[in-house]
């Protein structure tokens, strides 16, 4: 499997958060995107190349996460450049 491919992760639903979150954690680690989601990589404070690189990684992380949601769960989530906020479970990543 190439680094650009997303492995088969059971889609997020209202009943499988525990399993899904572990799989998603591993997926984001494998693509060096966990730092954005796990708050170990902070958004640069100054505009410029570093900010642009961070924004691109944030968009990729958000996309990776959204691709693992069941269709009816997607409407319950909001994508942002710096955070992904779940309005159903009150969790944010």
Indicate the structural class.
mainly alpha
Spatial strand sequence of the major β-sheet: 1-2
Q: Largest beta sheet, briefly?
A: 2 strands, antiparallel
**General shape:** elongated
The proportion of residues forming helix, as a percent range, comes to 40-55%
**What is the rounded distance between the termini?**
26 Å
Uncertain parts:
80-91
SSE string, helices as H and strands as E: HHHHEE
Plain-language structure description:
There is one protein chain. The protein has four helices and two strands, in the order H-H-H-H-E-E. A hairpin with a 4-residue loop joins strand 1 (about 75-80) and strand 2 (about 85). It starts with 16 loop residues before the first helix and ends in a 7-residue tail after the last strand. The longest helix is centred in the middle third of the chain and has 18 residues, at about 50-65. Strands 1-2 form a two-stranded antiparallel ribbon. By secondary structure, the protein is mainly alpha-helical. It is about 45% helix and about 5% strand.
């Amino acid at each position: 499997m190439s680094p650009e491919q997303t492995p088969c992760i059971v889609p997020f639903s209202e009943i499988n958060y525990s399993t899904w979150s572990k799989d998603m954690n591993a997926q984001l680690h494998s693509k060096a995107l966990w730092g954005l989601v796990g708050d170990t990589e902070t958004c640069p404070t100054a505009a410029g190349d570093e900010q642009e690189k961070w924004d691109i990684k944030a968009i990729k992380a958000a996309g990776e996460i959204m691709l693992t949601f069941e269709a009816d769960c997607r409407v319950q989530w909001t994508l942002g450049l710096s955070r992904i906020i779940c309005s159903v479970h009150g969790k944010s990543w």
